[in-house]
C-alpha cells in the first residue's frame, strides 16, 4: 500500500493581501458543495448532483497588536469580503504545491482578545463562503 506523508509547514498564509504566515500556527480550508437530490421514481438508490459551493477557511493566529499584524489586519476585514490564500509548502507553486485561494470569503466575527496567564494569545477566525480556486503557475 502506497502512502505519502509530508511535514505541515505552509509556505504562505495570506489574508486580504497581508502575509500572516509568521503569525499562523494552524490552517484548514474546506471545499464543500451542497448536495442536490436527483432521485427519480423507480430508482433503487438515492442519487445526488453538485450544487453551490459552501467553502470555509479557519486560521489559528497569534494575536499580535502591532501595525500590519493580526489584529490590525483582521479588524479592518470584519463584516467584509476578502481573499485568503494558503500554500502548503515553501517551494514554488506548482501542481504539487498549489496556492489555494478562497475569493470573496466573508469574515463575520473577530475575537478581539483571548488571554490566559502564562500562554501566548491566539485566536481562531473563520472565513465562510466565497469561491475556491488553485494557482499552480510560478
Describe the secondary-structure layout:
Layout: E1 12-15, E2 18-19, E3 24-30, E4 33-37, E5 48-53, E6 56-62, H1 70-75, E7 81-87, E8 99-107, E9 122-128, E10 131-135
Antiparallel strand pairs: 1-2, 1-7, 3-6, 4-5, 6-9, 7-8, 8-9, 8-10
Output the keywords:
single chain; 138 residues; mainly beta; Pnp Oxidase, Chain A; 8-stranded antiparallel beta sheet; two-stranded antiparallel sheet; 1 helix
Describe this structure in words.
There is one protein chain. The protein has 138 residues and is mostly beta strands. It has a single domain, classed as Pnp Oxidase, Chain A, CATH 2.30.110. It is 4% helix and 43% strand. It has one helix and ten strands. It has one helix at residues 70-75; strands spanning 12-15, 18-19, 24-30, 33-37, 48-53, 56-62, 81-87, 99-107, 122-128, 131-135. The strands form two sheets. Strands 1, 2, 3, 6, 7, 8, 9 and 10 form an eight-stranded antiparallel sheet that branches. Strand 1 (12-15) and strand 2 form a beta hairpin. It is globular, with a radius of gyration of 18 Å. The mean pLDDT is 91.
